[in-house]
Amino acid sequence: MSPVAPGPFREAVVDLDAIRANVARIADVVAPAAVMAVVKADAYGHGALPVARAALEGGAGMLGVADVDEALALRAAGIDAPILAWLHDPGLDFAPALDAGIAIGVSSASQLEQVAGAVARGAVPATVHLKVDTGLSRNGVEPARWDTVVERARELEASGTLTVDGVFSHLANASDADDDAQLAAFAAALEAADAAGLRPTHRHLASTAAALRRPDARFDLVRVGIGMYGLTPYGDGTTGADLGLVPAMTLRGRVAAVRRVGAGAGVSYDLTWRASAPTTLALVPLGYADGVTRHASGRGSVLLGGAVRPIVGRVAMDQFLVDAGDVPVETGDEVVLFGDPSTGAPTADEWADATGTIGYEIVTRIGPRVPRRYRGAP
Ligand SMILES: *Cc1c(COP(=O)(O)O)cnc(C)c1O
After folding, report:
1. Cβ(203) to ligand 1 under 6 A?
2. How confident is the model at residue 377 (pLDDT cuts 50, 70, 90)?
3. Do residues 181 and 260 both lie within one domain?
4. Residue 194: which domain range?
5. Ligand 1 pocket residue status of 79, Cβ below 6 Å
6. Coil, strand, or helix at residue 364?
7. Does residue 268 line the site of ligand 1, with CB under 6 A?
8. What is the CATH number of the domain that holds 363?
9. Judgement on whether residues 275 and 330 belong to the same structural domain of the protein
């Protein structure tokens, strides 16, 4: 037996140079609009802190996260760039966030009062971005209440309680016509804010999808998540590569066992697959506990021995099997689940298509048992 090549059992390698290059590429496309790098959910599973640093180096001027805890963790780690957090626990005390200089996305009249209350009790004056619902029906101030909210915000601004640094909304990215309607609603909301005397520096609406395809949605700032990670926001077959982007995450492991089986051999729980001819099976030590969905059973594929080979049988909690055919494979060989297509590996976008989801979910759900390793300049 030849010596087993050294390498980790399983790991997600994150290429920080790819993050930098993707941000720089998007910044170039959207200029003069600025870029907010969205690093919520541990940077879509890539690691919030290293990705935040790389994104800022790539030209992002601001970071975006969902909740205040994510923002505070970045501050505690020494990130001093502007950070916006926009999804809040209803009972949250905003004081720690305000004192840490976190900008607050405000989605309702009561949230505005909650922020003002924290300042009244001694927190530093707030920086807020008012969010208006332009048609997604998620969070954001309802259009009927917008006038009241902007007037109250202006009052609080005049009293020195807060600064309205931004006005924003979020698109459904359903169709051009739906985007048009949301753009019109956003323009009306901006007018109302202006009429109330607000002069926000950052008007923002687009995430990656509209940032790349709708120049009229770029305003002052675009909020970029998925594109920065090198994946596509579109469900139309457009790949990250088509957009000039490089997938930053490679999910890989080492073959844990190899066996030759005869025709008729059944594979994995429920024996949903049987070999139709003698073949070689390779055991891969990643399973649904690691975020490799059970929906990939019989659908996903991996790069093994220089070829793209199918997953056969059920994906289990810790492991799955690949039909290596007659490709020579040995225990310890590298297996790549997804990564940069220029290496011959499947992409996370292809995994998404094969398993009925989106690339966002493929990378974000990679579990805590998979160590992240960083490549590229730190
Ligand atoms: C997650 C998120 C984004 C980033 O979206 P991408 O499609 O990943 O670019 C932007 N804005 C808001 C409000 C978000 O929640």
Report:
1. no
2. confident
3. no
4. 32-229
5. no
6. helix
7. no
8. 2.40.37.10
9. yes
